[in-house]
Amino acid sequence: MGNSQLTPGVAAGRLGADEYQRNFSDIAPRYDAHEARVAADRCYFCHDAPCMTACPTTIDIPLFIRQIATGTPEAAAKTIFSQNILGGMCARVCPTEQLCEEVCVREVAEGKPVEIGRLQRFATDSLMGAGVHPFTRGKATGRKIAVVGAGPAGLSAAHRLAMKGHDVVIHDARAKPGGLNEYGIASYKSPGGFAQAEVDWLLKIGGITVVNGKSLGAGLTLDGLTADHDAVVLAIGLAGVNALRAEGDGMKNVLDAVDFISELRQQPDRAKLPIGRDVVVIGGGMTAVDAAVQSKLLGAENVTIVYRRGQEKMSASVHEQEHAASVGVRIIHDAAPVRVHGNGAVSEIEFAYTEDGPNGLTLRDETFRLKADQVMKAIGQTLGGAPEGLKIEGGKIAVTGAGRSSVPGVWAAGDCASGGEDLTVTAVAEGRDAAEDIHASLMGWGGTNG
Q1: How open is the CA angle 233-238-240, to the nearest 5 degrees?
Q2: By Cβ atoms counted within 10 A, which residue in 5, 159, 160, 273 is the most buried?
Q3: Which of 42-51, 54-63, 238-247, 248-257 has the lowest mean pLDDT?
Q4: In terms of Cα–Cα distance, which of 416, 414, 413 is closest to 434?
């Protein structure tokens, strides 16, 4: 967060060591074996399971829950990993309340779903904790594939390609692999270095080399990759951040929320992280909620999320909004920033009330100000520049079928690719499906091209 430590109102070490430990401990500890069996017994094991249809990776949920119920969590884990190799992280961060659990028959009938996410974590943690990797590498094909980006989509694609016997090289710009799982997830959702442990476990399949510190335009070119490899997967995420478009947004202590979350994830001593007394977060998605909640957990006294539309338009789930409220975060709807006030560093931020009508969002004349010594922007990310020659659609790499781009031999998956939702679980599914399509194409089986 730069030199914000020197700004009045922004300080490190607001809490005691025990408070930091308590605030950033695991928000939903895993079940023990008895709890898991009891939770699994609530499942009806539906034949035409709506939960399975609602899962972007189409995990056979009734099967893995039955396997837990019969005392074989390792078998349950293999059922999960066969569809979602990052099932451990997805069990922690997936918005199950909007996906599988929302359509659970128990939820519809009783208002309390089977806790599918926690059961998935129990199964995956059981197998990973034993140090077991459930898949073996296929017979070598002699084909070499480049993956750019070591986030969920890239890791998923690489693992599936390695299973098929291909040699895979993953290039990533950061010092560690993992992408958003490592750098963009709220610390209390994935404590204890789980993201890196999951990557290490995934790489046990063999046949995957990870090269850090390289990205497109910084050591890599698409032409060079396609010339040297049989296929290329672009899983580069969204590196750019939308502008605030408010007067004074260049003032000190106006931060990108993604950078704040990343710094928090990589800082082992949270007492060293400076946080404001009055923090305002602008946005309505998971990044906004994660930044706001963690600001509060770091000791900020007043934390407010301001979103330009109504509550029903917020992409953060109701569950996450309620969690933010439970730790003392205030949420204001229907307001947009128009001006940042301060003398070099932000001291207040001014908002105009909005109206969301048939012609889009308009600003009303009525405004208000919030005291702020730190402002965090969580207003969406952009591709931030795509390789030349790729067709772009809606600000993302245009794809057809299972991730085929406009350039032959190049696939795209995850947040950087058009279509789908920007969720970890969706990125895993897209990476997996692109890998299957690449394998079919290289083996002469055709693949899919929509």
Answers
A1: 135
A2: 159
A3: 238-247
A4: 413
Alpha-carbon torsion (371, 375, 378, 381), positive or negative: positive
- pLDDT at position 139 is 95
DSSP letters of 48-95?
T-HHHHHSTT---HHHHHHHHHTT-HHHHHHHHHTT-TTHHHHHHHS-
Q: Domains of the chain, with CATH numbers?
A: 4-21+241-381 (3.50.50.60), 33-129 (1.10.1060.10), 144-239+383-442 (3.50.50.60)
Rounded to whole angstroms, the Cα distance separating 78 from 64 reads 9
* Contact in structure between 352 and 338 (CB atoms under 8 Å): yes
Q: What is the mean pLDDT of residues 41-65?
A: 96
CB 222 within 8 A of CB 355: no
pLDDT band (50, 70, 90) for residue 448: low
Q: pTM here? A: 0.94
Q: Are 271 and 13 in contact (CB under 8 A)?
A: yes
DSSP class of 201: H
User: Facing residues of 357 across strands?
Assistant: 360
Band of the pLDDT at 28, cuts 50, 70, 90? confident
